Amino acid sequence: MARLIIIGLDGAEPSLAFPWARAGHLPNLQWMIERGAWGDLRSTLHPLTPQAWTSLITAVNPGRHGIFDFGKRATGGYEVELTTSADRVAPAFWQFAPEGARLGVANVPLSWPPAPLPGFMVTGMHTPTIEQGVWPPEILSDLGGDYPIDVMAHWYDTPEEFLARVFAMHGAHHGAFLRLFDHHAPDLSLFVYVLADRLQHALWREMTAAHREDPTAHDDLGGAIFAGYRALDDALGAWRERLEPDDHLLVVSDHGFGELRRDVYLNRVLLDAGLLRFDPAKVRAFAPPAPSADADPRHSWMHRRLPAVEELPADDNLLTRGLCDPRRLTFATVDWRKTVAYSRGLFGNVWLNRAGREPDGIVIGHQIAEVTAWVKEALLAVTDPDDGLPVVDAVVRKEEIYHGDCLPQAPDLLVIMRDYAYITRGATEFWGRRPVGPPAVNHSGNHRLHGVLLAAGPKIQPGEIAGANIMDVVPSAFHLLNWPLPNDLDGHVLTAMCAANHRAVTFGPPAPALVRDPRVYADAERGKVIERLKALGYLG
Q1: Per-residue DSSP letters for 108-147?
Q2: Which residues contact 76 (CB under 8 A, 6 or more apart)?
Q3: What are the residues whose beta carbons fall under 8 Å from the beta carbon of 376, sequence distance 6 or more?
Q4: What's the DSSP call for residue 319?
Q5: Could you tell me which of 219, 202, 201 has the C-alpha nearest to residue 210?
Q6: Theoretical Cys-Cys bridge with 493: which of 13, 269, 301, 479, CB 3.0 to 4.6 Å?
């Protein structure tokens, strides 16, 4: 049986990967461009890791699979809970593949807890321990003696230490992926490498025009990004060596990359516009939690970046407007009786404080349009002090971009930042005294809307692909394998890319209802992930 391998290059950026490949600097990507199909791959709005990868593996939009961020609003409350694969309500491809198919999945973000499947699974970022991230348990031996789950730049004091750790992680992941593939022979597999994403978040500003023009001439920090792409290209070479004549190789990224200019504090915008207010009595009574004695020192950035502890002002008006020590500004101290809108999460999400939905909601049905207009006006007026231009390109209602049964869980408004060069952070939502400020984390790169797609194999029509969407990857893979597609997916077969197949797309019944694994994961383990997400700035 022919096999198909999907290699995920998290964060691979078209404006780097394609020119460097054409110039011969990335010979395996060059081989795919010259002999196969290639083009930009549109991500989700927002182009955020959890919902992007979930849209790829399910081939449906977030309004149907239910993943919108690293965290989710608690039912009947304002707090944010951890999002895991257990919150996905649409089946992934391993749950609607044909009977008898052998499948392999490794290092896909938001795949923990793992799911039983006919093959193997190793879960990705935010997995508590690797022992809890494998299915079946016997594959643990394939991972080798040291399999790091993840590496982030702000865990380390120096860029040199970060680089040593992140390249070691890449090597360990690559070796494990090859062993899993060789030992278990899946028909369809998905392996995700995160090296490019981690390097570009940390070092994008170090890369100059000279680094782009001749990437081989630099061995400084700016050159580390090309070194990462070269390591990924070398990894593709190992996958090329494993291809049989009837096999196909797809390379995809969940989003692209570009400059990160500033952090944006949407709740400060709402405070300044009078749309959000704090309760002075709650602020005065709130006791900020002390750092845990056994807190991971890698996450100390959260404490280093906070200003010195401030005395509480006597003026209640200052407290109402959130002009005090940010340690006392939490969603527990908001005055919900006077708040009509609030923001949570990454990249720009706003909820209305709706009566009947939120526990202390005050916005009633006929006021929604008017409040939405107020929020949009306030957000579109925010400018970057560096250039005086608007920070926000658009504010869109969730109904404009999502559809499905999970629409009620989506943010009411999505704030599309200018070129995605600006970001909001769950852990720092009330830090800013002004609407924009320097990044709270030592990052200089951020996601972009378009990633990469490349495909090679006997059924691939060579040439550039136009209009590809991240939801189209799995339907196209199924078609290349001559597997029937569920007839209710949002994604489509990229027929121009698969033109050499000369076979009509075959549809089967709708994707089956999702059946949950009955195993229960301990609250203590969920707690570890929650603390890690808070330390990374994903959750408040």
Answers
A1: ETT-PSP---SEEEEE-TT-S-GGGSEESGGGGGGG-S--
A2: 359
A3: 395, 413
A4: H
A5: 219
A6: 479
CA–CA gap between residue 101 and residue 103 (Å, rounded): 6
Please report which confidence band the pLDDT of residue 153 belongs to, taking 50, 70 and 90 as the band edges. confident
pLDDT digits (tens, 9 = 90+) for 315-326: 999 999 999 988
The number of angstroms, rounded, from the C-alpha of 192 to the middle of its chain's C-alpha atoms is: 13
In 3D, which of 9, 13, 34, 35 has the Cα closest to residue 22?
A: 34
Q: What pLDDT is recorded for position 73?
A: 85
State the pLDDT confidence band at 294, using cuts at 50, 70 and 90: low
pLDDT value at 483 more than 70: yes
pLDDT at 189 over 50: yes
Taking a C-beta distance cutoff of 8 angstroms, is the pair 483, 97 a contact? yes
**Which residue type, as a one-letter code, is found at position 395?**
V
Helices 195-203 and 223-241 cross at an angle (nearest 10°) of 170
State the SS3 of 321-366.
Answer: CCCCCHHHCCCCCECHHHCCEEECCCCCEEEECEECCECCCCECHH
- Residue 341 has φ and ψ, to the nearest 5°, of -155, 150
Furthest-apart CA atoms within the chain: distance in Å: 76
Residues ≥6 apart with Cβ < 8 Å to 369: none
Cβ-contact 191, 107 below 8 angstroms: yes
